[in-house]
Amino acid sequence: MDHLKIxxxxxxxxxxxxxxxxxxxxxxxxxxxxxxxxxxFARLKLLERMLEPERLISFRVTWLDDKGNVQVNRGxxxxxxxxxxxxxxxxxxxxxxxxxVLKFLAFEQIFKNALTGIPMGGGKGGADFDPxxxxxxxxxxxxxxxxMELSRHISGRLDIPAGDIGVGGRxxxxxxxxxxxxxxxxxxxxxxxxxxxxxxxxxxxxxxYGLIYFAQNMLHEKKDSMKGKICLVSGSGNVAQYAxxxxxxxxxxxxxxxxxSGFIYDEGGITPEKLAFLKDLKDNRxxxxxxxxxxxxxxxxxxxxxxxxxxxxxxxxxxxFPCATQNEVNGKDASNMVKNGMKLVGEGANMxxxxxxxxxxxxxGVNYAPGKASNAGGxxxxxxxxxxxxxxxxxxxxxxxxxLVGIMKHIHxxxxxxxxxxxKPGNYMVGANIAGFVKVAKAMQAQGVI
Length: 450
Ligand code: NDP
Ligand code: 2IT
Description:
By secondary structure, the protein is of the alpha/beta class. Among the domains are: 53-183, Leucine Dehydrogenase, chain A, domain 1 (Rossmann fold), CATH 3.40.50.10860; 206-374, NAD(P)-binding Rossmann-like Domain (Rossmann fold, 3-Layer(aba) Sandwich), CATH 3.40.50. 49% of the residues lie in helices and 15% in strands. It has helices at 3-13, 18-37, 39-43, 46-50, 99-116, 136-150, 169-183, 203-221, 238-249, 272-284, 290-296, 331-339, 355-363, 371-374, 377-391, 397-421, 428-446; strands at residues 55-64, 70-81, 87-93, 121-127, 159-162, 230-233, 253-254, 256-258, 262-265, 299-302, 319-321, 344-346, 367-369. The strands form 3 sheets. It has a 5-stranded mixed beta sheet. Strands 7-6-11-12-13 form a 5-stranded parallel beta sheet, with helices on both faces. Helix 2 runs parallel beside helix 5, helix 6 crosses helix 7 (169-183) and helix 8 (203-221) packs across helix 16 (397-421). The longest helix is centred in the C-terminal third of the chain and has 25 residues, at 397-421. It is globular and about 60 Å long. The mean pLDDT is 98. The structure holds NADPH dihydro-nicotinamide-adenine-dinucleotide phosphate and (2Z)-2-iminopentanedioic acid (2IT). (2Z)-2-iminopentanedioic acid (2IT) binds at residues 88-90, 112, 162, 164, 191, 350, 378-379, 382. (2Z)-2-iminopentanedioic acid (2IT) is lined by residues 88-90, 112, 162, 164, 191, 350, 378-379, 382.
């Protein structure tokens, strides 16, 4: 069994899908020793099967903008793997959404969801719709039109979507309202719902909080802690905001944040008061991050998408938490981090580091956590929301938070144990890929060739 053959086949079968091929390449390289040790997994082609979506739905979304013009978008749901539970994963609304992007996200989600210990399969969906500059009514009409088709393909026991880039509390509300109207039922078909209509406390905070809990575990492993750590954070959306909040809780200092236009560097730290301003700016006023620099008189730099590196990652710090989007840390960025003595990189976003970037970090001994492990707190808490919906009751904030802390510790320890077992001590990437794979592979093996 030659892993290069599997990768070649993936490349041949998925031309023009660079993001999916990238995610596949990273996992395939890690799984080879598992296939060698378990020839039955190889014979049953379990990895090849995981690389093929169980179902990929693509649909037209037609809606009317405020001027009465007809708008046409493309919507998708990738139902990647249901071996260990119903499909579960977010919806992304962003102009860059393509089948390649959603397949990479759905593929990563299989492993991430398996690591949480909660029975959830992998899925992802979204649309090439850009919520930026749209009115509330336009966003609502788009969500209703999107759900008109998506509702045929999801249910509380089949596929449970949630938020991702461009899909937050507002969008989940509109999507849920549309589903309820179409199906004439109130069910836990989406997670990230509002408190008071089926949502779970802490779900909003969970991805960012979970990321920093994971980093805290990594630091504890090295007899260190978050206290006093200078942290670089990218993004200023859901994940970035609550990562910054938890860094503050644990005595660290977050000094950067960004959006797709540029980044701010606030040497004094993004204090709770400044974070409240940032949340209002991004969630309510939907403004640009430059306003933060104008208000607090700190450095702002435009991001040049054509530059060979991002200067945000060239600021001297102890920890880096990329929380914006895929491929935002390249080889040069990783080299800059190494040069500046970066101790830890924890991914809040999905696949924010290129393969070259990961290799630079690992080769230079940077403590690196892959998103599928370190950002799993969001989907894990979605799993807790599902459980509360099934039970028909709610846990307190403290109960959910303490379960989240426990889940992140469990994922951390599971990754380390798998990495150790396969002779790669301390390599969280290999550990996450192997532990996630083995759990799903065993379920597929038991369920026959289907
Ligand atoms: P949001 O939409 O809330 O925020 C996204 C942030 O990233 C914004 O600041 C946005 O800037 C920036 N951004 C988006 N696309 C780009 C781009 N192409 N280039 C530069 N900046 C960009 O999304 P989330 O915070 O929910 O998601 C962020 C990341 O975390 C994604 O990778 C997502 O898949 C991942 N994730 C999210 C989870 C969740 O529960 N929400 C769970 C696990 C992972 P701007 O305002 O200019 O658009
Ligand atoms: O990437 C992710 O894990 C998410 N966007 C959250 C998915 C979920 O179902 O909560």
